[in-house]
Amino acid sequence: MDLSPFETDNSVSCRLSSQIPDVCRTEDCCLGIDEAGRGPVLGPMVYGICFCPISKKEELKNSKVADSKTLTETERENLFEKLDEAKSYVGWALQILSPNTISTSMLQRTKYNLNALSHDTAIGLVKYALDSGVQLKEVFVDTVGPADKYEDKLSKLFPGIEVTVRPKADSLFPIVSAASICAKVARDRVVKAWNFTEDLGEVDTDYGSGYPNDPKTKAWLLKYLDPVFGYPQFVRFSWSTAQTLMESKGVAVHWDDDEEDGEKAAQRRNNKSMLSYFSASAGVNDRMQTHQTHRFFTDRRLKSLDTL
């Protein structure tokens, strides 16, 4: 599994895939869909599909694939290697959704929640398999939201394919278990080798589980909260855990509004106006200071001006 396309830019979504086995283009196939990392406040969410000929279902079952959550990391890695060794009849594809992609999607003006993002990602992966020539006849999906509605939605989108959506499908159908393993292995590897583009020095990688209720995760979030710029892109800043910490520990800033006479309103509230960071006086102060400009400004090529 080559993760370098995502590691080159981990701020965006990225698709990775195996070679398509020739037999999957000539025989009727089944496909399973599952995800890893839906709940954590840290790291990406990874959607995975795995597919093989229907005639190979029993062979896949005999490889002892199981719900990735019931396996140790070593067991998952070993099973992924088995799947990789079976590349003559097993194929897979992944969509890695970066924390930045998740948060910006959820916080955009038009409501786009995590369920909608999950559905669209799964649909995109099924379309990828079909466009690649995989002869899909059966699709098995671990549900997101009400199973019957999701099943109906997918059946209408993919007529001629028998769609089965079930809760805990990763423990019921080996092909979904295989997809679960691929997704979980990819997420674990990405999190372990995360490349922080922010200047954080030597980063403490003891994140805990990444889930919001984990004390280690909470401590990590508090440690790496910048009071002005918030979190590194490793964090899903749309999660309530992250938002609550930013609101309680971050610097209060007033966003200027003409109707409120922005600068004066900010002064009344004893807050800094956002415009003050770009004023002529701010530019003079910046030149007098010795510390480097924050990457927020350099990435966007923003500079303070004395004159317009």
From TrEMBL:
The keyword Metal-binding applies. Manganese or magnesium. Binds 1 divalent metal ion per monomer in the absence of substrate. May bind a second metal ion after substrate binding. Gene3D superfamilies: Ribonuclease H-like superfamily/Ribonuclease H, Ribonuclease hii. Domain 2. Residues 28-251 form the RNase H type-2 domain. CDD domains: RNase_HII_eukaryota_like (cd07181). InterPro entries: RNase_H2_suA (IPR004649), RNase_HII/HIII (IPR001352), RNase_HII/HIII_dom (IPR024567), RNase_HII_hlx-loop-hlx_cap_dom (IPR023160), RNaseH-like_sf (IPR012337), RNaseH_sf (IPR036397). Its cofactor is Mg(2+); Mn(2+). The keyword Transmembrane helix does not apply. GO terms for cellular component: ribonuclease H2 complex. It is an enzyme of class 3 (hydrolase). GO terms for biological process: DNA replication, removal of RNA primer; mismatch repair. It catalyses: Endonucleolytic cleavage to 5'-phosphomonoester. It comes from the Eukaryota. A divalent metal cation binds at D34, E35, D142. One of its GO terms (molecular function) is RNA-DNA hybrid ribonuclease activity. Its EC number is 3.1.26.4. It holds the Pfam family RNase_HII. PROSITE patterns: RNASE_H_2. Belongs to the RNase HII family. Eukaryotic subfamily. The RNase H2 complex is a heterotrimer composed of the catalytic subunit RNASEH2A and the non-catalytic subunits RNASEH2B and RNASEH2C. This is Ribonuclease. It comes from Sparus aurata (Gilthead sea bream).
